[in-house]
Write a structure and sequence with these properties.
Structural class: alpha/beta
Strand order of the largest sheet: 1-2-3-4-5-6-7
Order of helices and strands: EEEEHEHHEHEEEEEHEEH
Number of domains: 1
CATH topology: Metallo-beta-lactamase, Chain A
Mean pLDDT: 95
Helix content: 25-40%
Number of strands: 13
Number of helices: 6
CATH architecture: 4-Layer Sandwich
Strand content: 25-35%
Shape: globular
Low-confidence stretches: none
Length: 229
């Protein structure tokens, strides 16, 4: 029995707590009319499970053309090179986190927190602008630079079936000097996400939030929680 969840048309959660290894952050697949995009890749201990879950969703893993890493932490990127080698996909990350990923910095990648080592991971496409649009099968995937948790954190969104779906991994933090976190930047980033007025939030550790009012409340609750920092 597969634990894969269909979030909405063509969007699946294939990894994360309760689906793959407990250390995995959420892993998503977006189907752009046959061309697939993976968002994050788990902590590295459940690569084959994630691959099987793509198949269990009725999808061809070899149709995955890109893996987009939302930031440099190992629970989100540990299986990145497995998928690059297995599926010949390209890896995308923000320039400000890319060096930490490629060098496997044990602190910036939070590998020390997970008592692991990040495999050597190469980035094919470094995002550098505040807002970049990637195209898959003629469809838009928006990449928004949302620093704070890490310098190169990004959030993604697509508009589908008159709904805006936001992939906002690790909105909740945490924040640490080990990660070069910046709480002031994070507050500004959260305002960017509020301004998007998303209908569905795919969060990195705490599941799917909808409708829009619940998405807004989730973000504002964390802004309130860290108001005094």
């Amino acid at each position: 029995m597969s634990n894969v969840e269909n979030v909405c048309r063509g969007i699946y959660i294939i990894g994360g707590g309760g689906i793959s290894n407990p250390e995995d952050a959420a892993v998503f697949i977006v189907d752009f009319d046959g061309e697939l995009v993976m968002i994050d890749a788990g902590a590295g201990k459940s690569s084959r499970i994630l691959l099987k879950n793509i198949e269990d969703a009725g999808l061809d893993p070899h149709a995955v053309s890109a893996l987009i890493l939302t930031h440099c932490h190992v629970d989100h990127i540990g299986s990145a090179m497995y998928f690059k080698e297995k599926l010949s996909l390209r890896i995308v990350a923000h320039d400000l986190d890319a060096d930490a990923i490629e060098t496997g910095d044990p602190y910036l990648t939070a590998a020390t927190w997970y008592n692991t080592i990040l495999p050597r991971t190469t980035i094919d496409n470094r995002l550098k602008d505040e807002h970049e649009i990637l195209y898959f099968n003629g469809h838009e995937l928006h990449c928004i630079h949302t620093p704070g948790h890490t310098p190169g954190s990004i959030s993604l969104y697509i508009d589908r079936d008159e709904k805006r779906i936001l992939f906002g991994q690790d909105i909740h933090g945490p924040f640490s000097q080990d990660f070069n976190s910046d709480i002031m930047q994070w507050r500004e980033s959260m305002q960017k996400l509020l301004d998007l007025k998303a209908d569905i939030l795919c969060e990195g550790h705490f599941g799917i939030f909808k409708p829009g009012l619940r998405v807004e409340k989730y973000i504002r609750d964390y802004l309130d929680q860290y108001a005094s920092y």
